[in-house]
Amino acid sequence: MRLAIEAAEGVRGTTSPNPPVGAVILDAAGELAGIGATQPAGGPHAEVVALRLAGELARGGTAVVTLEPCNHHGRTPPCTDALLAAGIETVYFAVSDPNPVAAGGTAMLETAGVSVHAGLLADDVAAGPLRAWLHWQRTGRSHVTWKFAASLDGRSAASDGTSQWITGPQARARVHAGRAKLDAIVIGTGTVIQDDPWLTARTPDGNLAPHQPLRVVVGTRDIPKTARVLDDAAPTLVLKTRDVAEVIDAMADYPDVLLEGGPTLAGAFLAVQRIDRILAYIAPVLLGTGAAAVENAGVGNIAQALRFRREYVETIGPDVLLSLVPAME
Ligand code: AOF
Ligand code: ZN
């Protein structure tokens, strides 16, 4: 299952609206015979990719999949049929398919005599590669991660507006590598005017990654026609609004969304509880003055404070990365 999770992580961002799924096939002796991941929508599912690699070795073997094998004719035929045709006798999967159209794989396989085991490393998969897609299936809304970098005193820029670089190169490399796995990145018009970012996903050597997330620019201020986010390296959507609900609606087809700033936009999303996770990169730097990472989040007194629960904490070079989820969850 760890191999299947790794395979799924490898295709994150390239499969929407399908989930990024990973599958591993073991032969009858338990040896690795095939590994696969979901291909872009309309292409084969993970099980089919792995079965093709395994060929005849799959007969009498085991399939290990991060999601319950689908049982429907969608854009592709059911994976349950493919598993049976290949002679798979045992299936382990992590998470049940919440999509009512595709569900039912377990019952179908068991009826056909396959031994099916649900729930293997389910928490790792649900918090990992399937996190955004499961949220999107459950709520009908994108999973929104707010990412920010700040000094120890919570500031994202010095008082003259300069903001490069608060965190170290390792944290910045992590942010770039993560972009290629997203469906959309959202920023405010203020950030476009102030920082003129490209918002593209780049490989460590600085080239454009093969998959580029949709760039979404939100706000009522006009941005220059020469702004880098308007170049043709990736698609861009400009939303002339301050209404968070409108932004959420416009992104309904994008399960995994990253909000990158600035402080006003982050505050607006936080005030209406539309942040599902925070990734806070905190640098061992004090600025003393300068813009805060978030403004106007609707908190007037300590009882209204927005509270979060720590998911994990990690050190990245000189900085600390905190992953937080709303405390109510
Ligand atoms: C699997 N393995 O790798 C994926 C699954 O329109 P389709 O035919 O591509 O089906 C999409 C649905 O299939 C999707 O909503 C989800 O329920 C399931 N995705 N299932 O067995 C896979 N990607
Ligand atoms: Zn399938």
TrEMBL record:
The keyword Transport does not apply. Pfam families: dCMP_cyt_deam_1, RibD_C. Its cofactor is Zn(2+). Residues 1-117 form the CMP/dCMP-type deaminase domain. PROSITE patterns: CYT_DCMP_DEAMINASES_1 (PS00903), CYT_DCMP_DEAMINASES_2 (PS51747). Pathway: Cofactor biosynthesis; riboflavin biosynthesis; 5-amino-6-(D-ribitylamino)uracil from GTP: step 2/4; Cofactor biosynthesis; riboflavin biosynthesis; 5-amino-6-(D-ribitylamino)uracil from GTP: step 3/4. Zn(2+) binds at residues 45, 70, 79. NADP(+) binds at residues 149, 165, 191, 195, 199, 220, 262-268. This is Riboflavin biosynthesis protein RibD. It comes from the Bacteria. It catalyses: 2,5-diamino-6-hydroxy-4-(5-phosphoribosylamino)-pyrimidine + H2O + H(+) = 5-amino-6-(5-phospho-D-ribosylamino)uracil + NH4(+); 5-amino-6-(5-phospho-D-ribitylamino)uracil + NADP(+) = 5-amino-6-(5-phospho-D-ribosylamino)uracil + NADPH + H(+). In the C-terminal section; belongs to the HTP reductase family. GO terms for biological process: riboflavin biosynthetic process.
